[in-house]
Design a protein that fits this description.
This protein is an alpha/beta fold. 37% of the residues lie in helices and 27% in strands. The chain has two domains: 79 residues, no CATH class; 132 residues, Protein-Tyrosine Phosphatase, Chain A. The strands form three sheets. Strands 4-5-11-8-9-10 form a six-stranded mixed sheet, with helices on both faces. A three-stranded antiparallel sheet has the order 1-2-3. The radius of gyration is 19 Å and the shape is globular.
Length: 223
């Protein structure tokens, strides 16, 4: 069974295999420029290329199915480290950093917000008065939102975020749930992607939406 089929089957089986949320403890590491989600499950530590604590929970289901199939620990580790991202918090450009996340429900938006905070909540900045003391500051983030569900979840993203919506209706729906100081704009998807890459090189850029959105991202960025 391929990694792609195995991951898809596990997502569909989450309702059948009962694993308590508290059974999976996740954290994140950056190794040689590659981000990993690490997690402890039943006393063993694993890591996966999938990003987000919710993915650690999904991977626990993968582990259970592979164990039932008689797979070895080495085989399980290889699968977890090489699961096709298929647009799930996938890096499509490194300079500037552009990440695409494929959404299907409002719950996906909630997971996106958590993943952004986990991976890009704060960066370390040297204090002006000292070369050794480091102080955290929020990463600058720009999100291009091409999805009509879960708009209220965006208000939980911490400071230093700019939002570009692909329709005025989305922007209005968001503003009805949040009255903070977040900068919001409305642009056509292709224009928004080009504008973000050219004018926000210091930001972490996230493009979120469905399968067709992903195709436009890859076409616009020629990847």
């Amino acid at each position: 069974m391929t990694n792609r089929r195995l991951y898809g089957n596990i997502i569909n089986m989450n309702g059948a295999i009962k694993i308590p949320k508290k059974a999976v403890d996740a954290w994140f590491i950056n190794e040689n420029g590659v981000a990993w989600t690490c997690f402890e499950y039943k006393g063993d530590v694993y890591r996966t290329n999938l990003r987000g604590k919710h993915q650690a929970y999904n991977c626990a289901h993968i582990i259970e199915q592979m164990r039932a199939q008689g797979k070895s620990r080495a085989e399980i580790d290889r699968h977890l480290a090489n699961i096709p991202l298929d647009g799930r918090f996938e890096t499509v450009l490194k300079k500037p950093l552009v990440i695409f996340d494929r959404l299907e429900s409002a719950e996906d938006v909630k997971n996106l917000v958590r993943a952004i905070d986990d991976y890009f909540g704060r960066e370390m900045q040297k204090a002006q008065s000292s070369r050794t003391n480091l102080h955290p500051r929020p990463f600058k983030k720009l999100i291009i939102f091409d999805f009509d569900k879960g708009l209220g979840e965006l208000s939980y993203i911490k400071q230093n975020v700019t939002l570009i919506f692909t329709s005025e209706a989305m922007r209005r729906a968001y503003l009805e749930t949040y009255s903070g100081v977040t900068k919001t704009y409305v642009m056509d998807l292709e224009k928004a992607i080009s504008h973000a890459v050219q004018n926000f090189p210091e930001h972490k850029i996230f493009v979120v939406g469905g399968v067709l959105t992903f195709e436009v991202v890859k076409s616009t960025l020629c990847v």
